[in-house]
Amino acid sequence: MQIDRIDRQMLRHLQQDGRISNQELADRVGLSPSPCLRRLRALEEAGIIAGYHTRLDAKQLGYTLMALIHISMDAHTPERFEHFDQEIAAMPEVLECLLITGQEADYQLKVIVPDMDAFQELLLNRITRIPGVTGVHSSFVLRRVVDRTDIPV
Protein backbone atom coordinates (compact mmCIF):
# COMPACT_ATOMS: atom_id res chain seq x y z
CA MET A 1 0.00 0.00 0.00
CA GLN A 2 1.29 3.45 -0.89
CA ILE A 3 0.81 5.95 1.91
CA ASP A 4 0.53 9.64 1.20
CA ARG A 5 0.89 12.84 3.21
CA ILE A 6 -2.62 12.55 4.71
CA ASP A 7 -2.05 8.92 5.73
CA ARG A 8 1.20 9.97 7.44
CA GLN A 9 -0.60 12.76 9.29
CA MET A 10 -3.26 10.30 10.42
CA LEU A 11 -0.61 7.86 11.64
CA ARG A 12 1.20 10.58 13.60
CA HIS A 13 -2.04 11.63 15.32
CA LEU A 14 -3.04 8.04 16.06
CA GLN A 15 0.35 7.23 17.59
CA GLN A 16 -0.05 10.14 19.99
CA ASP A 17 -3.68 9.38 20.83
CA GLY A 18 -5.09 6.00 19.84
CA ARG A 19 -8.45 6.97 21.34
CA ILE A 20 -8.95 9.96 19.07
CA SER A 21 -12.43 9.95 17.52
CA ASN A 22 -12.80 9.62 13.78
CA GLN A 23 -14.38 13.09 13.71
CA GLU A 24 -11.43 14.67 15.52
CA LEU A 25 -8.92 12.79 13.35
CA ALA A 26 -10.75 13.92 10.21
CA ASP A 27 -10.73 17.53 11.42
CA ARG A 28 -7.00 17.41 12.16
CA VAL A 29 -6.05 16.06 8.72
CA GLY A 30 -8.57 18.12 6.75
CA LEU A 31 -10.94 15.36 5.63
CA SER A 32 -14.60 14.67 6.16
CA PRO A 33 -15.33 11.69 8.44
CA SER A 34 -16.26 9.14 5.74
CA PRO A 35 -13.03 9.33 3.69
CA CYS A 36 -11.04 9.48 6.92
CA LEU A 37 -12.65 6.26 8.14
CA ARG A 38 -12.03 4.58 4.77
CA ARG A 39 -8.36 5.51 4.93
CA LEU A 40 -8.14 4.31 8.52
CA ARG A 41 -9.68 0.93 7.63
CA ALA A 42 -7.31 0.62 4.64
CA LEU A 43 -4.30 1.28 6.91
CA GLU A 44 -5.57 -1.37 9.33
CA GLU A 45 -6.25 -3.93 6.59
CA ALA A 46 -2.80 -3.34 5.06
CA GLY A 47 -1.25 -4.10 8.47
CA ILE A 48 0.35 -0.67 8.77
CA ILE A 49 -1.75 -0.16 11.89
CA ALA A 50 -0.98 -3.33 13.79
CA GLY A 51 -3.24 -2.68 16.76
CA TYR A 52 -4.28 -0.28 19.50
CA HIS A 53 -2.80 -0.40 22.98
CA THR A 54 -3.02 1.32 26.33
CA ARG A 55 0.25 2.36 27.97
CA LEU A 56 0.36 1.68 31.68
CA ASP A 57 2.53 3.25 34.36
CA ALA A 58 4.69 0.36 35.56
CA LYS A 59 5.65 2.03 38.83
CA GLN A 60 2.00 2.64 39.71
CA LEU A 61 1.48 -1.11 39.34
CA GLY A 62 4.48 -1.99 41.52
CA TYR A 63 7.00 -2.81 38.79
CA THR A 64 10.02 -0.80 39.89
CA LEU A 65 12.93 -2.79 38.45
CA MET A 66 13.77 -2.96 34.76
CA ALA A 67 16.74 -4.90 33.48
CA LEU A 68 18.43 -5.68 30.19
CA ILE A 69 19.70 -9.23 29.99
CA HIS A 70 22.13 -10.51 27.39
CA ILE A 71 21.80 -14.25 26.78
CA SER A 72 24.38 -16.50 25.15
CA MET A 73 23.34 -19.84 23.67
CA ASP A 74 25.39 -23.04 23.40
CA ALA A 75 24.34 -23.89 19.86
CA HIS A 76 23.18 -21.76 16.96
CA THR A 77 20.63 -24.09 15.50
CA PRO A 78 17.08 -23.26 14.41
CA GLU A 79 15.70 -25.79 16.90
CA ARG A 80 17.63 -24.29 19.82
CA PHE A 81 16.55 -20.75 18.95
CA GLU A 82 12.93 -21.79 18.36
CA HIS A 83 12.70 -23.50 21.74
CA PHE A 84 14.25 -20.48 23.50
CA ASP A 85 11.87 -18.12 21.66
CA GLN A 86 8.84 -20.13 22.77
CA GLU A 87 9.96 -20.29 26.41
CA ILE A 88 10.72 -16.56 26.59
CA ALA A 89 7.47 -15.57 24.85
CA ALA A 90 5.54 -17.31 27.64
CA MET A 91 7.11 -15.10 30.35
CA PRO A 92 4.98 -11.99 30.96
CA GLU A 93 7.90 -10.19 32.62
CA VAL A 94 9.75 -10.13 29.29
CA LEU A 95 8.76 -6.93 27.53
CA GLU A 96 11.09 -7.38 24.59
CA CYS A 97 13.27 -10.16 23.23
CA LEU A 98 15.69 -9.38 20.43
CA LEU A 99 17.93 -11.79 18.53
CA ILE A 100 21.07 -9.68 18.08
CA THR A 101 24.44 -9.57 16.34
CA GLY A 102 27.66 -7.76 17.11
CA GLN A 103 27.82 -8.85 20.74
CA GLU A 104 29.01 -11.94 22.55
CA ALA A 105 25.35 -12.52 23.35
CA ASP A 106 22.74 -13.98 21.05
CA TYR A 107 19.69 -12.33 22.64
CA GLN A 108 18.85 -9.15 24.49
CA LEU A 109 15.86 -9.19 26.80
CA LYS A 110 14.12 -6.25 28.44
CA VAL A 111 12.35 -7.42 31.57
CA ILE A 112 10.31 -5.71 34.25
CA VAL A 113 9.71 -7.02 37.75
CA PRO A 114 8.60 -5.63 41.12
CA ASP A 115 11.94 -5.97 42.89
CA MET A 116 15.32 -7.73 43.10
CA ASP A 117 13.81 -10.89 44.63
CA ALA A 118 11.47 -11.23 41.66
CA PHE A 119 14.39 -10.61 39.29
CA GLN A 120 16.42 -13.33 40.97
CA GLU A 121 13.54 -15.78 40.70
CA LEU A 122 13.00 -14.96 37.03
CA LEU A 123 16.67 -15.21 36.15
CA LEU A 124 17.79 -18.18 38.24
CA ASN A 125 14.67 -20.33 38.26
CA ARG A 126 13.30 -19.70 34.80
CA ILE A 127 15.59 -18.06 32.25
CA THR A 128 18.83 -19.89 33.06
CA ARG A 129 16.96 -23.19 33.13
CA ILE A 130 15.99 -22.94 29.47
CA PRO A 131 18.02 -25.57 27.60
CA GLY A 132 20.88 -24.01 25.66
CA VAL A 133 21.38 -20.91 27.82
CA THR A 134 25.09 -20.80 28.67
CA GLY A 135 25.76 -17.19 29.57
CA VAL A 136 23.83 -14.34 31.13
CA HIS A 137 24.85 -10.72 31.67
CA SER A 138 22.41 -8.32 33.34
CA SER A 139 22.30 -4.54 33.46
CA PHE A 140 19.79 -2.56 35.48
CA VAL A 141 18.02 0.49 34.12
CA LEU A 142 18.58 3.53 36.33
CA ARG A 143 16.21 5.78 34.40
CA ARG A 144 14.66 6.03 30.97
CA VAL A 145 16.17 8.86 29.01
CA VAL A 146 14.00 8.32 25.93
CA ASP A 147 10.82 6.29 26.22
CA ARG A 148 8.86 6.38 23.01
CA THR A 149 6.91 3.94 20.97
CA ASP A 150 6.10 6.27 18.06
CA ILE A 151 7.61 5.32 14.71
CA PRO A 152 8.71 8.30 12.62
CA VAL A 153 6.24 8.73 9.74
From TrEMBL:
Keyword RNA-binding attached: no
Record keywords: DNA-binding, Transcription, Transcription regulation
Secretion signal span: none
One Pfam match: HTH_24
Transmembrane residue ranges: none
Highest rank taxon of the organism: Bacteria
InterPro entries: ArsR-like_HTH, AsnC-type_HTH_dom, Dimeric_a/b-barrel, Tscrpt_reg_AsnC-like, Tscrpt_reg_AsnC/Lrp_C, Tscrpt_reg_HTH_AsnC-type_CS, WH-like_DNA-bd_sf, WH_DNA-bd_sf
Domain named HTH asnC-type: residues: 3-64
Full protein name: Lrp/AsnC family transcriptional regulator
Source lineage: Bacteria, Pseudomonadati, Pseudomonadota, Betaproteobacteria, Rhodocyclales
